[in-house]
Amino acid sequence: MDFKSMKNYLYWLYCQFELITCSYLMEPWEKLLFYTFNISMLVMISYTAYIFIPVHISTAFQFFFWLGWYHHNDIGN
């Protein structure tokens, strides 16, 4: 894919984004607030996922490992 077609494709994606979000109807200061809010939410969600998802996965693996390797004491029975 050459540079010009990639540039056109990215511009097309941007136009689609503006159509879907109706941001093409906004004034420049409204767009700035809208994009700032959306980007900040995306960053916060990504950071939260980066911090908490590995902890939860690790805890789940430890729990399932404990379930799989738990042996009953058969000496007293």
TrEMBL record:
One of its GO terms (cellular component) is serine palmitoyltransferase complex. It holds the Pfam family SPT_ssu-like. It is found in: Endoplasmic reticulum membrane. It is a multi-pass membrane protein. GO terms for biological process: ceramide biosynthetic process; endoplasmic reticulum organization. InterPro entries: Ser_palmitoyltrfase_ssu-like. Its main location: endoplasmic reticulum. Pathway: Lipid metabolism; sphingolipid metabolism; Sphingolipid metabolism. It comes from the Eukaryota. The chain crosses the membrane at residues 32-53. One of its GO terms (molecular function) is serine C-palmitoyltransferase activity. Keywords: Endoplasmic reticulum, Lipid metabolism, Membrane, Sphingolipid metabolism, Transmembrane, Transmembrane helix. Component of the serine palmitoyltransferase multisubunit enzyme (SPT) that catalyzes the initial and rate-limiting step in sphingolipid biosynthesis by condensing L-serine and activated acyl-CoA (most commonly palmitoyl-CoA) to form long-chain bases. The SPT complex is composed of SPTLC1, SPTLC2 or SPTLC3 and SPTSSA or SPTSSB. Within this complex, the heterodimer consisting of SPTLC1 and SPTLC2/SPTLC3 forms the catalytic core. Within the SPT complex, SPTSSB stimulates the catalytic activity and plays a role in substrate specificity. Component of the serine palmitoyltransferase (SPT) complex, which is composed of SPTLC1, SPTLC2 or SPTLC3 and SPTSSA or SPTSSB. The heterodimer consisting of SPTLC1 and SPTLC2/SPTLC3 forms the catalytic core of the enzyme, while SPTSSA or SPTSSB subunits determine substrate specificity. SPT also interacts with ORMDL proteins, especially ORMDL3, which negatively regulate SPT activity in the presence of ceramides. Belongs to the SPTSS family. SPTSSB subfamily. This is Serine palmitoyltransferase small subunit B. It comes from Anser brachyrhynchus.
